[in-house]
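Internal ticket #5521
Category: modeling
Description: The requester needs a full-assembly model to guide mutagenesis choices. All entity lines are attached below as received. Residue total reported by intake: 1018.
Assigned to: D.W.
Attached entities:
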Amino acid sequence: MSLNQLLTLSGQVNDLLNASSILSWDARTMMPKGGSETRSKQLATLTVAARDLLCSDQMKHALDGAEKDVAGRDDEDPQARMVAQVREAITYHERIPAELLRRKTELGGIGHDLWAEAREKADFSIFAPALKDMVAISKEMAEAIGYEDHPYDALMYRFEPGTTTAELKSLFARLREGMLPLVRQIGEAQQPEAEFLYREFPVEAQMEFALKMAQRIGYDLHRGRLDTTVHPFEISFTRNDVRITTRVNPRWMPMSLFGALHEAGHAMYEQGADPAYVRTPLATDLVGLYAVSGVSFGAHESQSRLWENHVGRSRAFWQNHFADIQSAYPGTLDDVDAEAFYRAINRSRPSLIRVESDELTYDFHIMLRVELESRLVEGSLSVDDLPDAWNAAMKEYLGVDVPDDAQGVLQDVHWSSGQIGTFCNYTIGNIMAAQLFETAMAEQPGIRTALDQADYAPLREWLDDKVARHGRRFGRDELLQKATGRTLDPEPYIRHLTSKYSEIYGLAA
Amino acid sequence: MSLNQLLTLSGQVNDLLNASSILSWDARTMMPKGGSETRSKQLATLTVAARDLLCSDQMKHALDGAEKDVAGRDDEDPQARMVAQVREAITYHERIPAELLRRKTELGGIGHDLWAEAREKADFSIFAPALKDMVAISKEMAEAIGYEDHPYDALMYRFEPGTTTAELKSLFARLREGMLPLVRQIGEAQQPEAEFLYREFPVEAQMEFALKMAQRIGYDLHRGRLDTTVHPFEISFTRNDVRITTRVNPRWMPMSLFGALHEAGHAMYEQGADPAYVRTPLATDLVGLYAVSGVSFGAHESQSRLWENHVGRSRAFWQNHFADIQSAYPGTLDDVDAEAFYRAINRSRPSLIRVESDELTYDFHIMLRVELESRLVEGSLSVDDLPDAWNAAMKEYLGVDVPDDAQGVLQDVHWSSGQIGTFCNYTIGNIMAAQLFETAMAEQPGIRTALDQADYAPLREWLDDKVARHGRRFGRDELLQKATGRTLDPEPYIRHLTSKYSEIYGLAA
């Protein structure tokens, strides 16, 4: 049967992409320094091999037959969806000329060193010429991929299929309206005490506690492991092997703890996928050429944010686990109580650096990037004017002055490899997290009761049932519609932030 | 130019095979238990992808052109050799029907569990049916590959190209003649004291000292790393990333130390390959589908044995480093001196288990296996008669009685995956090691002087120059001919063992 042949071949594509992920994990955790040059070549070969197999004549032949095999089945039938996704991915890749892909890859290879040097010297002009080329290639890429309304839509497709610039514009306007007053009021309010978070927390004890908490909320170590890296991440090699990393600062304990909870949230998404989908297109992003079960980068972020923020930064969590953290660091937190700890880890202050920002101000860093990226791509902003535009937006949104480009426009690694169109995922994830969490609480009051008793299984099961197990079977909005009765809706997120921060900072409603 | 195209494609084959090696390393060192099933599929896909690319129409087309490109060049020209090796590998793989390969792979998958159960229960009859199938498939494989004299020659080709059963028969006869008298005499001699090797050596201190000594002899950690595993091994992902593992027994220190020196010897072979050969057929075993620069498994073993035995178990080495090992384990070896240590680590006693045997008795374990394997393949021994034949040979060679099959015919993992034809590598390695070491000493007396002063660079440079840098450019015998003026010669090895053990045990000449 052609369908079987299609699944055999797409299983091999999944294997190649998982191999690529294993090589990436190794490069970031274990590889000796000398290995980097040949490792890049190995990674490139694996991606090309996966793409070539996906777009091969034998795959297309199997696909033609498989489409007949599933004809007439229910639209939501998993196998019908698998077949449709292979078709969609082949169509996507064949729109991009090999020569354009090659130029983009080459530029990505050069860009990183220029970006690193520019950031080191806080001198945007070093990186500007490469970024100009990247914007130009991104425009070409957008034209090749195609779009209805805005070229930026085409670039976001790989990361957040279906999301449009217009949709983000209206979402962002609503977020600003809801969140800016909070930011302003907190700017004038009394900050909670947080000195105790900067005490000395031994590295090994931090790793042990972070892993303990990750397992406590449901991360399965039989199919996972925790390591340390400069930039924390989660990566999976099928649902059977899903790894996380965190980073440890001996004088800033929240970094390792919330990093691990965040990545464990990502990991549980992958670990929760239906075992029947392993190695199938429902566990493979064939458009992005990445072996992942999560349906979009934003959907993935929703799971990490939900566990990090809605669970890990909640009052109930620390009422239950403050004694645990006290005994993890004997003598260090004896003069602190659960309530003070809860307030300290939820402190909000405008900051320059995205990855160091708090739950409330984080999205402003994202809006700024999405807005600037889309203007670069549409041509209404030039690369030369980018630093000024960046600094003006930081002032407008967060009221901060950017002292130099290293702490401003050069801070993120994304553009160094020509990656444009991915920042929206973070804010979409925040919105989805609140929407899912609010629905879970309303639908099953027992989940809240359980959370209050440090029992995370009911929430995890609800999320597995509504999100994780489906893998890539449903699109993001389809998934949201089934789980919450509507598509992306910023209101639960604004309600969550308003209620939480008003209470912590004693703001007027 | 077709040659460039050939090198691009063979570079991708190398990348795929290196990716496979990285996945194997990860599976043995880092992977959580849950990952094993999907990892097997990923590994299979990578090997098939490498084989398919090697035997693809585009590769053959490039090869046809490349043969014209290098026509008329010197026979030893590296590029001419690359082209010839691609041709040889394609010819080899095309002789093996896909259906036969599939049956062999499937049987390998089943065999391991049956073997493990049989060994667990010390019951050969559990494994016998699978082994019968494996012998039958090996015979089919030998017929497909082709041979002049003996079907076992065809099976050894993957591991030790050019070696014949007839050649081994005569080598083994000479080894027995030279070594059996030593084994007999030592059986009646006084054993050196070795109690102190079984004292308590902390695990972390062992790892630290093992790594220190590996680096001391020349293992480059910028392009390597050391981990612990149940079975020690070396594996490379190009010369830029060559990793080793060792195992640690807190009450038997030589295991970690000599394990690390052994694997460092393998590693230095890979690290010493000519940088110009990276990703080329001269750094890829295209017949065995394994990304390695060493020219045969025996040649590889020669480097590990040379550093482990001729250097690491030499008197000079411990005259220089005994103080180092004393300070690595404070207080543990205070009542021991360098001479006593040297004698203890060179103690020889017949034993049941190959991997636990000493320098002198090791080869008898190998001869036994090679002889039984070749008889199984030629049909002069049946699988049912194998345990009796094993036990008889153990009695004849080493004078030991095998108490059960777990400590006899079932001890090695090799047959569980249908791997027949690889044991000869160990003895060939021992012979080559002595031949190369004796030549180095005779040719450059300064190397001995340097070794006496704990300077390992001159020996390493000689080996790099004569062996490592050539990668797979020359065949094993060609390499030996250039380095020592003759092909495989057992006399230096017999001289080495006779002189060393006569001296330690005070035997009559």
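Resolution: model delivered.
Comment from assignee: Chain B is about 60% helix and 0% strand.
Ticket closed.
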